[in-house]
Amino acid sequence: MMWxxxxxxxxxxxxxxxxxxxxxxxxxxLSPQVTRCGSFECLTSGTIQIWCGDIFDLTATDLANxxxxxxxxxxxxxxxxxxxxxxxxxxxxxxxxLDILLITLNYPQHEMTGPPFAVTPSEVESxxxxxxxxxxxxxxxxxxxxxxxxxxxLSRLQENVYWLKTSTMENHDG
Length: 174
Hints:
CATH superfamily of the largest domain: Vaccinia Virus protein VP39
Mean pLDDT: 92
Shape: globular
Strand order of the largest sheet: 1-4-3-2
CATH topology of the largest domain: Rossmann fold
Order of helices and strands: HEHEEEEHEHEHE
């Protein structure tokens, strides 16, 4: 988020944990103002805003000015049963044509209980192909750079980076 901000973009994050949002601002030596945005507690510093609350409470009005989505930790934080609902909700509220940068983790799910949960490339395709064109930008073996996952028993950890381009065709599932 900070990198996007440093490139001149206004940034809106959504975080379930107020503690995690405050840690972000502390890490970057920022003192956010705290306000209410509907059912969300909003922490704001300059053009960085983090909305604290349940992502399923977001509305199309809340996201009307969003042009790009960076999903680094939302999809992998959800158990498989919630992912289709998440994607339908998110794409149902966002403007019809936009770009999404999606980062997922893939590992033998039986080796570790999430979160983060494993999300396979085939699941990403299943979740998004009717709504977006997908391009896999990168697949990286990241277990060596994340020793805590090895300590939790993983034998393999792959990070997959996707660029998704949504369109106006079937973007809104009811």
